[in-house]
Design brief:
Length: about 450
C-alpha cells in the first residue's frame, strides 16, 4: 500500500518562529515583536529575536531538509521584513533574503510552498487599525503583489493566510496571540471580514500576475469532529458539529471557508451573530470567493461527538488519562480521517494537510542522538488515518509535518518542541531526530513505510 502518485511529502515552518534577525537589515516591527516585549505574555519571557537564526543559517537548513528527502517545504514570508511600514517602501535586503532562500531550496530539489501571512503582521499597520481597518484588504493585496512579482517565476504553490481562526480569534478576542487584543465580538467579526476580503484580493493578485501558473489555497484550522461510532446518526452528528457555529468565537470551519468557497457566510452564524455582523458591502462576498486549487488544512487533534437521542449532538468526554502530547493536546489520529473526509465532501477541493505533528519531550540522549519514538508512532497513526480517507475517496495531494525544526511556539516560547530536527538554541546546533530518519524512509517509499 502506498500513497497516490505525485503525492507531496513536506514539512513546514513559519517566518517569525524560525528566522530571528528581528532587528536586522531593515526589517520593520511585527505585532509578535511587540507581543514578546509585553511582560507575562510569553513563557519565560522568550522572544523570536534569534529563534533558529534561520535568516543566517538557511543554507544549512535547506541542506538538512534535503538530507531528510523533503520534496516540499512550506515557509512563510515576514510581511514587515519586506515592507517595514506594511505598505510603500520595499526593504530590498529583506526581499533578497527570500529570493536567496527560494533559489537555495530549488537547488536542493525542494519545492517551496509559500504562505504569505503566518501571523507576523506589520506593527505599522496595526497602528493604522490593523485588520479592523477595511483598507487592510488593499494593504495585503499590495504586499502580495510585491512578493508575486519577485518570486512567482519560481514558486508555484501559494497559501494566502494561515489560520485566521487563530490570528483573529486568539489575537483579537482572547488576547493570547499578537496583537493581544480582547475586543468585543462585533469588532472580532469585522476584523475577520477584512481578513477574508484580504484573502480574496490576494488570490486575485496572484492569478493576475503570477509568472507561472499558480496553485493557490488557504490554510485554516481544520476543525474535525470525530464520530463516537460508525452508526450513521453519529457520523451525521460529527459532520454537523464539524461545520456548526457553536458560539461567539472563531472556532469554526464554515465561518471562514464558506465565504471563500461558496461566497456566503453560513446561515446559522448569520442568525447567531445577527447583532454583531460586520458591514458587508456589495461585491464583498464575490471578492472573497475566488477559485482555489486546494484546501490546505492544519489538523492536530479534535473532540469526539455523538448524536443525542432528541436530535443534535453532544461532546463525548475523553477517557480518564487520555494520551497527551506535551502541549498537552490529545492524540486523536481519527481527526486525520474525518477532517479531510468532511472537508472534501463539503468543499470539493483537493485536500493538502498543511500542518500535522506533535510537541514531544525531546532532548539529546546520552548517545548524542534525539530519540522520539512517540512522534514516530503519532505520525504513523495519523498518516494511516489520512490514507484511509484517501482510500474512501478523498482526493488529497500532500502532507506537511509541523515542523521541520524545533522553533518559537508562540506563547509557549521554546518550551514546546515540534521539530523533525532538534535545535540546541544556545549553540544553534541542529540534530536530526529519529523521526527525521524515519520520515526519510516514509518519503522514499511514498508512504509504504507506515504500514
Ligand atoms: C498552528 C500554527 C503553527 C504552530 C502549530 C503548533 O496553529 O499554525 O504556527 O504553532 O500550531
Amino acid at each position: 500500500m502506498s500513497f497516490p502518485n505525485n503525492f507531496v511529502w513536506g514539512a513546514a515552518a513559519a517566518s517569525y518562529q524560525i528566522e530571528g534577525a528581528a532587528y536586522e537589515e531593515g526589517k520593520g516591527l511585527s505585532v509578535w515583536d511587540m507581543m514578546c516585549k509585553t511582560p507575562g505574555k510569553i513563557w519565560e519571557g522568550n522572544t523570536g529575536d534569534v529563534a533558529c537564526d534561520h535568516y543566517h543559517r538557511y543554507d544549512e537548513d535547506a541542506r538538512l531538509m534535503q538530507e531528510i528527502g523533503l520534496q516540499a517545504y512550506r515557509l512563510s514570508i515576514s510581511w514587515p521584513r519586506v515592507l517595514p511600514g506594511g505598505t510603500g517602501a520595499i526593504n530590498e535586503k529583506g526581499l533578497a533574503f527570500y529570493d536567496r532562500l527560494i533559489d537555495t531550496l530549488l537547488k536542493n530539489n525542494i519545492q517551496p510552498w509559500v504562505t504569505l501571512f503566518h501571523w507576523d503582521y506589520p506593527y505599522a499597520l496595526y497602528c493604522r487599525g490593523g485588520w479592523l481597518n477595511r483598507d487592510s484588504a488593499d494593504w495585503f493585496a499590495e504586499y502580495t503583489q510585491v512578493i508575486i512579482d519577485k518570486l512567482s517565476d519560481r514558486v508555484l504553490h501559494w497559501i494566502t493566510q494561515n489560520e485566521p481562526q487563530c490570528y483573529i480569534g486568539l489575537g483579537h478576542q482572547a488576547g493570547e496571540h499578537a496583537p493581544g487584543l480582547k475586543l468585543g465580538f462585533a469588532e472580532v467579526l469585522r476584523a475577520a471580514h477584512h481578513s477574508l476580503l484580504a484573502h480574496g484580493k490576494s488570490v486575485q493578485v496572484i492569478r493576475a500576475r503570477a509568472k507561472i501558473k499558480p496553485a493557490i489555497g488557504a490554510a485554516p484550522v481544520g476543525i474535525a469532529k470525530i464520530p463516537a461510532s460508525n452508526q450513521p446518526e453519529d457520523i451525521n452528528a460529527a459532520r454537523a458539529a464539524t461545520f456548526a457555529i457553536s458560539g461567539k468565537n472563531c472556532w469554526s470551519n464554515a465561518w471562514f471557508a464558506d465565504p471563500m468557497i461558496f461566497g456566503k457566510y453560513p446561515e446559522d452564524g448569520l442568525k447567531l451573530f445577527a447583532a454583531e455582523l460586520p458591514e458587508i458591502r456589495d461585491g464583498d462576498m464575490k471578492t472573497i470567493c475566488q477559485p482555489l486549487d486546494f484546501y490546505g488544512v492544519n489538523i492536530y487533534f479534535d473532540e469526539t461527538v455523538r448524536a443525542r437521542s432528541n436530535g443534535g449532538y453532544e461532546v463525548v468526554k475523553s477517557q480518564i488519562g487520555p494520551p497527551l502530547t506535551t502541549m498537552p493536546w490529545e492524540v486523536t489520529p481519527e481527526a486525520l480521517y474525518w477532517g479531510p473526509k468532511f472537508l472534501f465532501e463539503r468543499y470539493q477541493l483537493p485536500i493538502v494537510v498543511t500542518e500535522n505533528g506533535m510537541a514531544n519531550c525531546d532532548w539529546i540522549h546520552l548517545d548524542g542522538k534525539v530519540h522520539d519514538p512517540q512522534r514516530i508512532d503519532f505520525l504513523t497513526r495519523y498518516l494511516r488515518a489520512y490514507h484511509r480517507a484517501m482510500a474512501d475517496g478523498v482526493v488529497a495531494q500532500g502532507y506537511f509535518i509541523w515542523s521541520v525544526m524545533d522553533n518559537f511556539e508562540w506563547g509557549h516560547g521554546y518550551k514546546q518542541r515540534f521539530g523533525l530536527i532538534y535545535v540546541d538554541y544556545p549553540a544553534q546546533k541542529r540534530i536530526l531526530k529519529d523521526s527525521a530518519y524515519w520520515y526519510k524512509e516514509v518519503i522514499a517509499s511514498n508512504g509504504a513505510k507506515i504500514f
